[in-house]
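Cross-posting from the chemistry board since nobody answered there.

I work mostly on the small-molecule side, so proteins are not my area. We synthesized zinc ion and want a rough idea of how it might sit in this target. Sequence and SMILES are below. Is it possible to get a predicted 3D structure of the two together?
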Amino acid sequence: MLKLIVRLFLLLASLSTLGQEYDFLIRNGRVVDGTGNPWVYADVGITGDRITLVGHAPANATARRVIEAGGLVVAPGFIDMLEQSEWNLLIDKQAFSKLTQGITTGITGEGGSIAPQNEQTLADRRDFLQHYHLTVDWHDLDGYFSRLERQGAGINLGTYVGATQIRKYVLGSADRPPTAEELARMQQLVDEAMRQGAMGVSTSLIYAPAFYAKTDELIALAKVASKYGGIYASHIRNEGDREMQALDEAFRIGREANIPVEIWHLKVSGRQNWGKMGDVIAAIETARASGLDVTADQYPYIASGTSLGATIPPKYHEGGSEVFVNRLRDPQVRAVIRRELAGRDGGTENMWRGTGGPQGILVSSVLDPALKHYEGKTLAQIAGDEHKDPPDVLLDLVIAGKDHVGALYFTMSEDDVRYAMQQQFVSVGTDAGAVNVQGPLSESKTHPRAYGSFARILGRYVRDQHLLTLEQAIRKFSSLPAQRLGLRDRGILRPGTFADITIFDPATVNDTATLKTLTVLPSGSNTSSSTVFFRWSTARSPAGLGDDRCEGPGIKQVEIGSFDEAQNVAIPATCDFPTTAKREVWPRRRRG
Ligand SMILES: [Zn+2]
């Protein structure tokens, strides 16, 4: 009863302070509600941080701000099923590249995660931290999120706890199984992270030291996440020649740990494997038919993106970055690596072979300013410029960049990408951290997926190629991931849900960044003034977080006006970026 009175009081208080029926009223939009249902014309009202109307608002309805959306699509804010912004948001809180493509919630923590941290987990981060003047003052997830909440962020953020993170925390970069005691400690750390709101436990098994973990170790950790209703999400051990075995491992973990499985950035990697997406989808469907809850996500590009060092087999990475880089100076080691690159997959994914060699690997980002001139060039081009043998270019660049070099790998076929996109259990993840067109996160080039993934699907695959309907695409961006993650009040536009909203023009939305040029242009927000994204971020507390210019209790608005391609700058937003990082009380939080 007291609760009800308090609620009533809050409701009346918010109404009386506002003196309006709604804080925001979006009129005459084509509402695509996220369920997959056909669009309808409707008005959307927002009060506080929630949607309070989806339907017809009388002509005399009042609001602090009315937005005429005539003709534009009004949809739930997009959920990025795998992004990588946990550090980026500490460097630049805006999350610009997310907001400009309609993303309001991002899920991160691929193998490595932002917590727990200790000396061992931070050992390979020193250059990075120094470069961006970052200090790490947290140990666990609670500590990280309170820092993020203090400083604010442009998107809601959720994270998995990484099995790699846990392994590094306890074992460092050693290539050995944990002792029984160490495994118990690792399980305890997963337990702690799950109680602090982790979405589940994750692996990224092509990288060291994740690669050193055997399946039993992963099952032991996944069992802990399962207790809290978590998910096992994985960059599987092989996306190339041994992809089917890698899928089997993920399925086994799902079965034996009794946990739902999410296959991250679903792909078929390596020219020699093109056309096998049908087999991959069939394997997932068979697993689902047998009762295993497995889903997947993807980014809509034929190039993958990761560190350049990932081209070199994981066994050479043992001991951490410094040891790894020094090892590459040894002529004997170099000779062996050279032979391995040229050979078939020897149990680990051979990205050199999969891309067809140095012309299929493109340097995208470096941390060291002295190496900037390599960005945007393929290893073949660099080899030509410097009259070097391509494998030497690879090894020397990893050494020179101290393993802080990012690369694109042209490793997939368009048909495989399209086939995966047509599956209703496949959602979307950019697999990229937030970047910006200005400030510290604009220093490097980046994979176009960072800016364009969602807009590319809406423009290229929905509007231009009719591969899927608008409603199907929006469902993949919203209610599908929300259901997967247990985000109860997000992902569908209906009264009562959080006011995470995206508005865009279906006629012009597009990704403008390209794989060839890596041009950094936000998609769907080019010069056309009708192409606008809005986003309403929610705040945990209904009071005290207001921004004068944005008005409304617990509500922040971001309006990315438009994008000036000639100047390569964003036209200023109406309001400041939200100052609250939003980590809502995820349903799984604090169960233990
Ligand atoms: Zn990955």
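Reply from a structural biologist on the board:
Welcome over. Reading the output above for you: Residues 307-410 form one domain. Confidence is low (pLDDT under 50) at residues 1-18, 519-592. Happy to explain the token format if needed.
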